[in-house]
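#lab-general

N.A. 3:47 PM
ok so I finally got the sequence cleaned up, no stray characters, all 207 residues accounted for. can someone with queue access submit it? mine expired

B.Y. 3:52 PM
send it over

N.A. 3:53 PM
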Amino acid sequence: MSSRTLTGLLLIAGPIVLLAGIIPVFSSLGDVDWGDASKFIPAMGENAGLVKAAIPVATLGMLIVAAGFAGLNHSMSGGSSAHYMRVGLLFYIIGATLVVGESALTIGLAEAASGGNQAAAEALFAASGAVGSAGEATRFLGFALIGVSIFTQKNLHVALGALMVVIGLIGVGVAVSDYNSPIMGIGYLGGAILTLATGILVIRAKD
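B.Y. 4:20 PM
back already:
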């Protein structure tokens, strides 16, 4: 298997695994306001088992995507936009690292809530929100910069790069201004779809 094919497969598999972890959590919580601790914490406690199983799956998917972007970075080395790609990958990895921390805090929140430890759950709620906001803003900034590199280097379709920039900037804006807003779903779903499309185009472009 060539490195290009492996990169494409990682970029295809990552979003699928990510969504496989995120969707069950969103579905189980229904229309609960994620920014309202009085409603979110009890809902997490009631679904603690699902949260502990699904969030690691979503985190794994995000890390698979990071590995795929690392492969894309290698294939673009020496190109006209290699610098944008390197910086974008760096921001994406830093953001993903922070989101891993958020995932751990969220699992702890669910465990505390299920055990009736309200004080610990509230503290973890505040910490996970702060870490998650910073992490997702950084990760989406990296995503946007990766889009800039694709758009300017034209190694893949320029429309893909342009859409990545748009979705990335939306993700940054919402994560900073109102992380618990449902609009974050646009960033998550849009990012997953565009990453999947990137993987498909990478494989189709193989020599």
